[in-house]
Design brief:
The protein has two domains: 153 residues, Rhodanese-like domain (Oxidized Rhodanese, domain 1), CATH 3.40.250.10; 139 residues, Oxidized Rhodanese, domain 1 (3-Layer(aba) Sandwich). It contains twelve helices and 14 strands. A five-stranded parallel β-sheet has the order 1-7-6-2-3. A five-stranded parallel β-sheet has the order 8-14-13-9-10.
């Protein structure tokens, strides 16, 4: 009788363990749906960031660089608590490939860059620019886009950047934080990337919109980037200067209604490819159109004019005149 009772207790214990495992498995989706693990909005404010710092898998990524006037010492002199630093200009977010500067790095280079920051596909990353100019915001947008390209799903930009954090009286940390490297395996999202062949197809058949994110002088061919081989723009492109989306007074993007009004010149349907000189300014246009306004099928031509003009056979449209060339000869133009 004692043996039978003992066997009954063993069977009961086994069923209890099995039932516990079932409960844990059933609870897993509920944990994944926890607000802390939910997809982040593309732009987050200071209060939002303060409420999430220190959570598991949460990464604050300070990207300040010479582009915003920062020095190598700037980060150590003050940054958001827990923030890691990755210099946008020097850490490898852009690379020279096939002799062309500022290109999207290779998959191996990106895996090394992201993995050494301790970021994986499940990390939640808030990119923090300095918050001082539209070009500075473009750096954040380019890093955001790059992380999305390699498969990091939850990424955001701090609205107003580090300047907004300081202006809000939020706590500041000094010194440096050292990341815990991990092995990162990129899962490239090709739906975000435009190559020259994609642009050539749009130029040939007109089935899509090319958005030139540069200032008008570049678009018209009055000036050009040093690394570009020709003046002007890709035929058929429309010009939406990334600066038109940005409010210099607040160092933030403009309100949604104004963004929508600016973007209204784009055809309501069909693919959109954003480009500039090197894929920097165009990342802001992509961010606004894709992430804030929800436009589908928007890509960044990361090679932009530097890549496009590297092949003399590719067409160019330009308003440049001989008078522009004469002024350049005498040192009064580009």
């Amino acid at each position: 009788m004692i043996a039978i009772r003992q066997r009954f207790l063993e069977i009961s214990a086994a069923w209890t363990t099995a039932l516990g495992l079932v409960v844990l498995l059933a609870a897993a989706p509920a944990r994944a749906a926890d607000p802390a693990a939910a997809a982040m909005p593309p732009l987050v404010g200071v209060d939002w960031l303060k409420s999430h710092i220190g959570e598991p898998g949460f990464v604050v990524l300070d990207i300040r660089s010479a582009i915003d006037g920062s020095t190598p010492e700037t980060y150590a002199q003050g940054h958001i608590p827990t923030a890691l630093h990755s210099d946008y200009d020097k850490s490898g977010w852009r690379a020279t490939r096939n002799g062309l500067p500022f290109m999207l790095p290779s998959v191996a280079q990106l895996e090394k860059l992201v993995g050494e920051l301790g970021i994986d596909g499940d990390s939640r990353v808030v990119v923090v620019p300095a918050g001082v100019s539209v070009s500075d915001f473009g750096a954040a947008a380019r890093v955001y886009w790059t992380l999305k390209v390699v498969g990091v799903r939850n990424v955001a930009i701090l609205d107003g950047g580090y300047a907004a954090w300081v202006a809000a009286g939020a706590p500041v940390e000094t010194g440096t934080n050292t990341p815990s490297p991990t092995i990162f395996e990129a899962k490239i999202d090709h739906s975000l990337i435009a190559e020259a062949s994609d642009v050539e197809a749009i130029v040939a058949d007109g089935k899509g919109t090319l958005v030139d994110a540069r200032p008008p002088a570049f678009f018209e061919g009055k000036v050009k980037a040093d690394a570009a081989q020709a003046y002007g723009h890709i035929p058929g492109a429309i010009n939406i200067d990334s600066a038109s989306f940005y409010d210099d007074g607040t160092n933030r993007l403009k309100p949604r209604a104004e963004l929508e009004a600016i973007a209204a010149k784009i055809a309501p349907q069909g693919p959109v490819v954003s480009y500039c000189n090197t894929g920097h300014w165009s990342s802001t246009d992509w961010f606004v159109l894709s992430e804030l306004l929800g436009r589908k099928d928007v890509k960044v031509y990361y090679g932009s004019m530097v890549d496009w003009t590297s092949q003399p056979s590719r067409p160019i449209s330009s308003s440049r005149t001989k008078w522009d060339d004469i002024k350049k000869f005498f040192g009064h133009g580009s």
